[in-house]
Design goal:
Chains B, D: It comes from Candidatus Anaerobutyricum stercoris. The complex is a heteropentamer, with 1 copy of chain A (296 residues), 2 copies of chain B (214 residues) and 2 copies of chain C (261 residues). With 214 residues, chain B is mainly alpha-helical. Chain B contains 8 helices and no strands. Helices cover 40% and strands 25% of the residues of chain C. In chain C, the strands form 2 sheets. In chain C, strands 6-7-8-3-9-10 form a 6-stranded mixed sheet, with helices on both faces. A 4-stranded antiparallel sheet of chain C has the order 2-1-4-5, covered by helices on one side. In chain C, α3 runs antiparallel to α4. Chain C is globular. Classes of the chains: A alpha/beta (296), B mainly alpha (214), C alpha/beta (261). The interface between A and B is medium-sized, with 34 and 30 residues. The structure holds adenosine-5'-triphosphate (ATP) (2 copies) and magnesium ion (MG) (2 copies).
Chain lengths: 296, 214, 261, 214, 261
């Protein structure tokens, strides 16, 4: 089903992709290509230069269940949709938030982790900035959830306590090339505050880094997002991956991984249980606190 | 901004490219001349500092220079860049002034010493010789390499996106995110048309100066 | 009364002594042909007279006035040089016309620039420029190029270009007009027209110094011949003297090479 | 938290730049020559097609060309590029071959017709004239513009990051994400050193060919 | 027996008729001086003889053998032309030496390339190349340049370069050696040495066609003089005939211009 309303060649590409079976392609090749960017704790290299991370290990476990190899490729995050459509990758699995737009343009898996938006700023200006952001410059990665929230292209849902668009209504917005650049902007002073994924932020800002003079503030609950896996629109691959994930939930692997990466509090239970448990977990306060706890 | 017509959005993105293009030219053309004079100076230290400066600028990617100009003031001195467009302009102007200066130098050095001497024996002053005799001949000589460089500048303006200038390719990528792919590829047309116009313009200038031979 | 007197003029390039003490003088209205082997210093001497090279030592006097004195700092200043240079005109071997200007403008440019410094330029601008233009046309006519006035240098033959260069030099009415091998860059067929113009100037008693390899011409046109050998004046006298009865063996040898064909 | 040693990581990133640089040169140098022959062909349609091709390549940003090569096969024909390094190589080779071809053409056209005629009257064949008489003279003439272009290529390899080639600047950005800023700026040194080495090399080549004058 | 016969040779460039039917012949050992105004077609005629231009019609015979016939397709083929061209040698106005080769290599290159096509080249390689080298040295000695053998062209004076060009042409032992204004790109002082070499060739009875503006030289060295006017042979005869008693008014006018100085 191509309800994405895109025109021209992309529509044809989409239709074509859906017409064939991605699963057949992938199983024939014996390999699934996952597009990602490097960031802790989802996909990164550890001290020993091993490629690890929650998403990394979960994807590898899925690969084992499906009997296929997993091929991770580092992509330009700006190009992820076109990477999918041009079949250079089979899915995006990299702590990607579910948004209305992505629901339109991709087939998404069930959500597996919660995420929140965090404000990152210089520690010595935290009080000043938290008291008012009027007239200040806020940055976010272009195309990110943070940008969507700031610009109102991602509508606020009922998990939102503070509307980012209203909160930053009197601030100047600038887009950054990447999340890393967003933090660099704050460090360099070209922006006063960055609005970024809290999960990623905790992976970047810490005592041993050049950002040790910066703090992550999650006092404002700008809403709760869900991490999902993105597939080509209409792809049958989603079903197979989701089935494998269900099994991994069932045998406890998912919980173990969440434990390992300190993400247990953000973990979304899988479909059957989620039906009853998710709404409870999804109250903003707990999730935001959980995010803080998870990273510390 | 979303929901805007892609053509409108691309066009307004390209206007940013053009603005960067124009401001860079306006400032780099004279700055390049100053750098040329420094690099040809008889005062050795100035000459060498200029040569090293040109070497560093020509030896590193413009992309990095953009990062340095935008971030270094804040990182090193705690004085952040006030605007990223300014940062882009500074990086582009420095980069292109270095390239232009080498072209100018080549042009000036290619003028035969006989032209200067002819001016001298006719009692002209140094500045009369430069402005009345040499300048136009230099201009004629540098038009071809300058047109190449200026056409490269057109395309390089797309690099400004790495510091978040919402130029045409960045504008196009917003549509890519919405699943609309053609805007990205159609940016090529904007560049082709503009480069085409520039080529015609430079061809016309070259023709204008065909009335004499150097 | 000598219009030009050169005393003990020396010029070194680093360790290379190119002019080793040149002495000669020239009367008003005379033309001097300077001959000598390649590398003997003819061009260097002309360039010294025109202040394109600064002599190492010696004196140059024009009309009894010292225009260069190696021992006098005043005559070495930039401004003095610019003024004194105007006593001389120089026609280059390679013409060095200004390619971007028409033939007429080539001739008038320098004079126009000088006129701009006159106090009355602002008020009489049009008249002054018209006068200069008329003058330019006249001088071009005198070299037979009135019809090429609005051409650009590259549209002319070499001989025509050289004639423009002569006209350009004449415009400033120099006391002494110098030529450095004015026909050596020309096709043989085109040298005639240039030599004819120079001969015309000689007939009009223009004071000239002409470096040339055209021995026949040197003989016909000059009042004095100077044979330069290794930076020294080896022979100096009337054409008859130098060509028919050279005092020096080396002069004889040099001349032989030209007349043997 | 930090993984590999930044120096190691930058170095292995730069090896990718160098690999791309080397493969591009290896393929674009001969391809450029073929394009030159096409653009100088007496068969008009071939000549014009080649000219248009060169115009399009020179008229659009390399960045866009990278996107097109990587994505167009998958988008248009459903056959994705097998490797993004291959895609980068294809885009770079096409782009640089177009530029090289124009330099070659300039070099070939600058050889005086007298050299060809001298070969002819001595009874040489066309290929003997090309290889024994003209070639080295062309090489001597194109060394300066080619060195410029090749130095530009060095810096352009950094552009490959836009299609996710983990070259040095992309490697450096991994550290930026982990909160380590200096690696990004120190990439400049890699470029400067390599460009310095290239400049010396080209200087040496120019000197080697100074024994004759064209 | 005429070594060279040219019959009714015509050459058009587009609508411009440059050669309008040239007829002349040359005996073995004779040297022909070709004179005429600029644009009269002298260079074009030489280029036709050397197959650098394809004549529009007419015939060229060397040793009674037709090497070019406008009506015979065989003599027009690329391969035939390459073969027939070797009957002629050509020394250019602008030398056209190969700048990247030494003086010796300039002379031997063509012969070496030809030797490579010989069947016994592989086996006798060293001997053959040595022979060619010895030959090259000999021919360079004959133009007085044995000492400059290992120099590169740009290290020589113009006169020396032109002598190398002559040696290079001689290496292939052409039946007829052609010169196109061999001294017009030279400083006057340097023309002597080149003319001396050509005179030496004439003394050795080399068959030559020489386009020149050096009338004195043409008169001294040639056995026949051909005056070309507007693409036609206006006068053809011995030097005495043409220079002393020209039949045509236009020849007289042309010659006057040269001897008037
Ligand atoms: N700028 C210079 N620096 C060093 N040496 C020079 C310079 N100009 C001339 N010379 C040397 O001075 C000597 C005389 O040169 P000059 O050009 O005056 O000779 P010339 O008599 O004009 O010769 P020609 O007939 O070849 O023109 C030569 O040995 C020349 O190499
Ligand atoms: N390739 C060409 N295409 C068109 N016209 C040409 C070409 N070559 C020569 N011509 C014309 O043919 C005529 C004869 O030229 P050519 O060079 O043979 O004269 P020339 O007698 O050698 O003159 P010069 O003494 O100036 O060398 C001239 O009008 C010239 O413009
Ligand atoms: Mg001289
Ligand atoms: Mg000719």
């Amino acid at each position: 089903g191509s309800s994405n309303g895109s025109g021209g060649s992309s529509a044809e590409g989409g239709t074509q992709a859906a017409a064939e079976s991605d699963w057949e392609d992938v199983s024939a090749k014996g390999e699934m290509t996952i597009g990602m960017t490097l960031f802790a704790p989802m996909n990164y290299y550890d001290e020993n230069n091993n490629f690890v991370g929650f998403d990394t290990e979960l994807a590898q476990a899925v690969g084992e269940k499906l009997g296929i190899d997993i091929n991770f490729v580092e992509i330009n995050w700006d190009s992820k949709e076109i990477e999918l459509n041009s079949k250079n990758i089979d899915c995006i699995w990299n702590g990607m938030c579910s948004t209305a737009e992505r629901q339109e343009t991709m087939t998404l898996s069930a959500p597996y982790l919660y995420n929140t938006q965090a404000m990152v700023m210089k520690a010595d200006r935290e009080d000043e900035i938290m008291s008012s952001v009027d007239g200040l410059t806020v940055t976010a990665e272009k195309g990110s959830t943070g940008e969507g929230k700031l610009q109102g292209t991602i509508a606020d849902d009922d998990t939102v306590e503070v509307s980012a668009m209203e909160y930053f209504a009197n601030s100047n917005y600038v887009a950054s090339d990447s999340m890393a650049k967003a933090l660099m902007e704050v460090k360099a002073g070209t922006a006063d505050v960055a609005l970024v994924d809290s999960v990623a932020a905790y992976g970047m800002v810490g005592p041993d880094t050049d950002y040790s003079d910066m703090v992550i503030n999650v006092d404002n609950n700008f809403g709760l997002q869900e991490y999902v896996i993105g597939f080509r629109k209409g792809s049958d691959l989603e079903q197979h991956v989701s089935d494998a994930i269900d099994e991994l939930y069932a045998d406890g692997t998912v919980a173990q991984l969440a434990e390992k990466y300190n993400l247990s509090d953000l973990l979304i239970e899988n479909d059957a249980q989620a039906a009853t448990e998710a709404p409870e977990a999804a109250t903003g306060d707990t999730a935001a606190e959980a995010a803080t706890a998870a990273a510390e | 901004m979303l929901g805007a017509n892609p053509i409108e959005s691309l066009t307004s993105g390209f206007l940013l490219n053009l603005e960067l293009f124009a401001v860079t030219l306006l400032l780099a053309l004279p700055l390049g001349l100053i750098i040329t004079f420094c690099s040809m100076s008889r005062f050795k230290p100035l000459k060498w500092i200029t040569k090293v400066f040109i070497w560093v600028i020509r030896g590193t990617p413009l992309m990095l220079q953009l990062f340095v100009v935008l971030y270094a003031p804040g990182l090193l001195f705690g004085i952040p860049m006030s605007s990223r467009f300014t940062a882009a302009v500074i990086a582009f102007v420095i980069n292109y002034a270095a390239y232009f200066s080498e072209i100018y130098r080549g042009g000036i050095e290619s003028i035969s010493v006989g032209q200067y001497e002819a001016g001298k024996v006719l009692g002209m002053t140094r500045s009369q010789i430069f402005f009345k005799v040499v300048l136009l001949q230099v201009v004629k000589r540098i038009v071809p390499p300058m047109s190449n460089e200026i056409i490269t500048l057109t395309k390089d303006t797309a690099l400004a996106r790495v510091i978040g200038i919402g130029e045409i390719i960045m504008s196009a990528e917003r549509f890519t995110k919405m699943g609309l792919i053609w805007p990205l590829f159609s940016t090529a047309l904007y560049f082709l048309v503009f480069v085409g116009v520039l080529s015609l313009l430079f061809g016309w200038v070259e023709k204008k100066m065909d009335y004499f031979r150097v | 009364m000598a219009i030009l007197e050169v005393n003990n003029l020396k010029k070194n390039f680093g360790n290379l002594e190119v002019l080793k003490g040149i002495d000669f003088s020239l009367e008003k209205g005379e033309s001097l042909a300077m001959i000598g082997a390649s590398g003997s210093g003819k061009t260097t001497l002309l360039r010294c007279l025109n202040f394109l090279e600064r002599p190492t030592s010696g004196q140059i006097r024009v009309n009894e006035k010292v225009v260069f004195d190696g021992a006098d700092a005043r005559t070495l200043s930039e401004a003095e040089i610019r003024k004194n240079r105007l006593h001389f005109g120089l026609v280059f071997q390679s013409f060095n016309l200004f390619p971007q200007y028409t033939v007429l403008k080539n001739c008038t440019l320098a004079k126009e620039l000088m006129a701009k410094e006159r106090p009355d330029f602002k008020t009489n601008k049009k008249q002054i420029l018209d006068e200069i233009k008329t003058e330019g046309e006249a001088v071009l006519a005198s070299v037979g190029l009135q019809e090429k006035m609005d051409y650009y240098p590259h549209q002319l033959s070499g001989g025509q270009q050289q004639r423009v260069a002569i006209a350009r030099a004449l415009m400033l009415q120099p006391d002494i007009l110098c030529f450095d091998e004015p026909t050596s860059a020309l096709d043989p067929e085109l040298t005639g027209e240039v030599l004819k113009v120079i001969r015309g100037l000689a007939d009009k008693k223009t004071t000239m110094v002409i470096v040339t390899h055209e021995m026949q011409f040197a003989r016909d046109v000059s009042d004095k011949v100077l044979f330069l050998d290794k930076g020294m004046v080896a022979e100096y006298g009337s054409p008859e003297q130098v060509f028919e009865h050279p005092k020096e063996e080396r002069t004889r040898q040099f001349l032989e090479r030209y007349f043997e064909q």
